[in-house]
Amino acid sequence: MSDQHPPLAQAPEPVQLAVDLIYLLESNAIDPAVALEAIYIVEADLKNKLNTATQASRD
C-alpha cells in the first residue's frame, strides 16, 4: 500500500512543510486548540505580507 504514495522528499513543498509543522506540534505536545489558534494568527500575518508585497510590486 505505501508504494502508492510518493516519498515525502518528492511531495510538493507545501506538503513537506505541513508534515514538518505537524511533527513539531505533536513532538512538543502542543494542544491542538492552541496550535489552531496560532495557525490562524500566522495565516493572517502571511496574507498581510502577501498583500503588502503585491501592492509594492504594483507601485
UniProtKB/TrEMBL annotation:
InterPro entries: DUF2496_YbaM-rel. It holds the Pfam family DUF2496. This is DUF2496 domain-containing protein.
